[in-house]
Amino acid sequence: MSISSSEGLNEEKRTIELNGHVGFDSLPDQLVSKSVAQGFSFNILCVGETGVGKSTLMNTLFNTTFENEEASHYGNKVHLHPQTYELQESNVNLKLTIVHTVGFGDQINREESFKPILEYIDTQFEKYLEEELKIKRSLFSCHDTRIHACLYFIAPSGHSLKSLDLVTMKKLDSKVNIIPVIAKADTVNRSELDKLKIKIMSELVSNGVQIYQFPTEDEAVAEINSSMNTHLPFAVVGSVENVKVGNKLVKARLYPWGSVQVENENHCDFVKLREMLVRVNMEDLREQTHARHYELYRRCKLEEMGFKDTDPDSKSFSLQETYEAKRKEFLTDLQRKEEEMRQMFVNKVKEAEAELKEKEKELHERFEQLKRMHQEEKKTLEEKRRNLEEEMNAFNRRKVAAETLMGQAVQGGSQPFKKDKDKKK
């Protein structure tokens, strides 16, 4: 490489040779080294009914036995159980988070089964947005928990999707990259499995469900991704058991009639899923999550908060003006709510006072009624007492008169007896 320079209009040009290589073509290598040093994060959401094989497939996919408690079929609601693991392959560190939907599809009323999943996804977006809006940010060092891929497990029962599957995927398609998989595909024969795949894709298209399509813009992966898009949904089988087939041990499921080899593409699509999810498109899933799903959430959230890029007059955006306008709106709303609360308090006090006055009036009337009843009873008792005293006085008079008469009678009867006695002498 050479550089030409001129000194004045009449001077001859001279050529200066560089002593070394400029070297800006090493920027990709620098970026790779920095990324490897920082490590990567990848978060998978596993949505499916209890017992459909989510945990087994995750163990098979990453060739690791993840700790996971066995879920019960008797949960009264759906809750999400995230677990984070530190994995290493060669010199690359991966922080893998697997989120299981515990109790999904086990309730009798399944109308709101998707809500806890949506809330969890939005919560992870909210955490990342809060980190972005901080004055002192640390986006590179913080743990990114946003969901990068959603493996939606379809039970191989029936010949089409359940209404729960359609509703849930429709609610999730604007929030996360959905990759549908047919679980326990060894329970369906090949011809029925092909028909089931066609039926599932037809129902997804007719219901407007947007699933993740492997990108075909990059020439390096365009051919393989185009081919793999035709195999969706992947029919997978998971197993952590090693079975001897011929002269080698392979991961398979052993049955009385034979074995289903997990990594045999003639038996299932597990290898296709692993290639697409882990080896070829993991970075695109991370990029799509950030550039599409998170940006949509971020835009809607900031618009709700009052932020905007331009005003109606197409003037330049001012963060300070937006903040002041939002603050003024908040204070106005706060004053309005305070006034409403104050008026409500006054009304409550007036209602309480009116109620107390009514109670007081009722109590006073009751008191007056009891007072009148007491006076009437007292008057009645007084009359009864006077009547009783009169009866007692009359009785005493009759008694005295009776005693007087008896005394006179006794005295009159004793005098003749004495005269007769004197005569006998």
TrEMBL record:
It comes from the Eukaryota. Residues 406-425 are annotated as: Disordered. SUPFAM superfamilies: P-loop containing nucleoside triphosphate hydrolases. It holds the Pfam family Septin. GO terms for molecular function: GTP binding. Belongs to the TRAFAC class TrmE-Era-EngA-EngB-Septin-like GTPase superfamily. Septin GTPase family. This is Septin. It comes from Takifugu rubripes.
